[in-house]
Amino acid sequence: MQRNFILELRKKHSLSQQEFADLIFVSRQLVSNWEQDKSEPSLENKKLIATLFNMDIDELDVYNKNNHLKNSEIKKEKIKQAFLQSLVRTQNTLETLQDIAKESNLKKNEVQLYFLNSEDVLIDIIKNIEKSIYIQLNHSLHEQSDSLARVQNRIFPVLYQQQDNIRILYQNAISRAYWNEVLENVFNQIIDKELQQRQLTHLLIDRSFQIYLVSRQLMSFIETWMRHPTSPSLRDIQLLFKQFSYYSTKILLEN
Questions:
Q1: Is the pTM of this model over 0.85?
Q2: Does residue 125 contact residue 84 with C-beta atoms inside 8 Å?
Q3: What is the mean pLDDT of residues 33-41?
Q4: Among the listed residues 80, 159, 181, the one whose alpha carbon sits nearest the alpha carbon of residue 122
Q5: How close are the terminal C-alpha atoms of the chain, in Å?
Q6: Looking at residues 94-119, what average pLDDT do you find?
Q7: DSSP class per residue in 60-126
Q8: What pLDDT is stored for residue 68 in this prediction?
Q9: Which H or E element spans position 245?
């Protein structure tokens, strides 16, 4: 049982440590120890707490588990934000886990509960963005739209929402390489699927090279957007992309 659970339960019912202790027939010091994670309530104490606050003991454990997960997510987010800030400083390398722990005001062993090394932190950040992209793409599976429209209407909102983090990824050579690899894979899949659906058999250029060219143009547009000092609105970005793709990318998909 985590200390925050006892603390949260006590505060929820506006009880002092002494009042809480009196209700379950223990000392105030013991309650303090629970809240400081120095010890855990015994099974009998858990049963008494569950009865007192009209909770099932299983519900009590689930409540505690959820609270623990929430605290874990907060710590993970602190670590990731500290790591992102380190990318701005390093540019060509990744800081050590020790440096990231110091930046996030955590101990190294606390950081190691979530990440084995700096590369793990980077991968986690990028994977979360990638996951959001694929969720949006899956929602558009039954839409009657071409690949460029899916990029514009489904992927761009995700990139816009995550642009603060993505802008930082472009500032470090290592993170930029990881991010570009993920982005290229996403675009390759979208473009390849469209070419299959169109069943184009008489291509002017090799199909794999065609996919590569289109992906590179899309990636170039996104990198230019993310590296520019101003931040246009999502609508402006989508309109610019529509014009850009009409004069450059679209012609490659139609030949």
A1: no
A2: yes
A3: 80
A4: 80
A5: 64
A6: 90
A7: HHHHHHHHHHHHHHHHHHHHHHHHHHHHHHHSSS---HHHHHHHTT--HHHHTTT-SSHHHHHHHHH
A8: 58
A9: none
